[in-house]
């Protein structure tokens, strides 16, 4: 499974970042509320399993806190990806459970994925996306 951990961490990061953006610090709060959106529910469950449940006001791990503050920032997502990957690599049982949860996740909704250095991943774009060096844009 070690070869797949990076890919699994990427999938988990997408779910967790989506839930973190929607719930904020409450993403780690133990609550009986069910997520209205299946993706948010999976993301929240993954965040709680990987980073633990937190009481109101309790400190949140920095990479997750950064994504909560700015879920669209690529650097924040990269740091979260690294933290997820590290957690999965450190606990084989956790990695197996998370892999199963991701496989069982509803296949509805939008999934945006990318691969490769500087490869863009976009759900909706209303502007220019350029990958590579030396791009020139009309004024």
Q: Percent of residues in beta strands?
A: under 5%
Measured between the Cα atoms of the first and last residue, the distance is: 48 Å
Shape: globular
Rg is 16 Å
Largest β sheet strand count, sense and barrel closure:
none
How many distinct helices?
A: 5
Written description of the protein model:
The N and C termini lie far apart (48 Å). The chain is built from five helices and no strands. It is globular, with a radius of gyration of 16 Å. It has helices at 5-23, 38-51, 62-69, 74-90, 92-104. Helix content is 51%, strand content 0%. By secondary structure, the protein is an all-alpha fold. The protein has one domain (2-104).
Briefly, what is this?
The protein has 139 residues and is an all-alpha fold.
Features of the shown structure:
mainly alpha; 139 residues; 51% helix; single chain
Task: Indicate the topology.
Elements: H1 5-23, H2 38-51, H3 62-69, H4 74-90, H5 92-104
């Amino acid at each position: 499974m070690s070869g797949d951990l990076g890919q699994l961490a990427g999938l988990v990061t997408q779910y967790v970042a989506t839930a973190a953006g929607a719930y904020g610090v409450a993403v780690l709060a133990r609550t009986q509320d069910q997520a209205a959106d299946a993706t948010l529910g999976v993301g929240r469950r993954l965040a709680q399993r990987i980073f633990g449940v937190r009481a109101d006001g309790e400190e949140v791990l920095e990479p997750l806190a950064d994504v909560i503050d700015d879920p669209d920032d690529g650097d924040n997502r990269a740091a979260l990806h690294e933290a997820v990957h590290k957690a999965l690599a450190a606990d084989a049982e956790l990695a197996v459970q998370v892999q199963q949860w991701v496989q069982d996740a509803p296949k509805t909704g939008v999934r945006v994925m990318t691969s490769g250095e500087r490869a863009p991943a976009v759900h909706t774009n209303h502007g220019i996306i350029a990958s590579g060096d030396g791009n020139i844009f009309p004024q």
